[in-house]
Model the fold of this input.
Amino acid sequence: MPRAVDAVFERALAKKREERYPSCSAFAEDLKAAIDVGAHQKMRWWIGVGVAAVVVVVVVLLLLRLK
Done:
């Protein structure tokens, strides 16, 4: 689970009432934002994997061409 989502749930489940969300809509807003952040991080990771794969393929092709 992304850290941002975990932080939202920690606040929602806080023992002290004053540390919890004041309303369901505030909780929902933060949760949506946290999920969006997690999705963005995951997308960046997959883009990085894709770029690395392309680099590996290009290097292999160049090495094969040099032989």
